[in-house]
């Protein structure tokens, strides 16, 4: 996934949450970016974005 001029790798999923990072950590829950597909929430550190279906 490309976001904010950075290439993020898919690190894995737990339930409805998918985790992304430039270099995946051992514990995927520690990834820099979390996407919650059910809500459309994209969370990076203290920034949260909402994705809408087209």
Features:
54 residues, mainly beta, five-stranded antiparallel β-sheet, 7 strands, globular
What does this structure look like?
- With 54 residues, the chain is mainly β.
- Helices cover 0% and strands 50% of the residues.
- The protein is built from no helices and seven strands.
- Strands 3-4-5-6-7 form a five-stranded antiparallel sheet, with no helix packed on it.
- It is globular, with a radius of gyration of 11 Å.
- It starts with a strand and ends with a strand.
Largest sheet, in brief, is: 5 strands, antiparallel
Helix content: under 10%
Radius of gyration: 11 Å
The shape is globular
Distance between the termini: 18 Å
- The largest beta-sheet arranges its strands as 3-4-5-6-7
Point out poorly predicted stretches: none
Give a short overview.
This protein has 54 residues and is mainly β. It has strands spanning 2-3, 6-7, 9-14, 17-21, 33-36, 41-44, 47-50.
């Amino acid at each position: 996934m490309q976001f904010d001029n950075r290439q993020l790798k898919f690190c894995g999923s737990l339930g409805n949450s998918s985790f992304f990072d430039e270099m995946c950590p051992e514990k995927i829950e520690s990834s820099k970016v979390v996407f919650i597909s059910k809500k459309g929430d994209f969370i990076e550190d203290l920034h949260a974005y909402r994705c809408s279906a087209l």
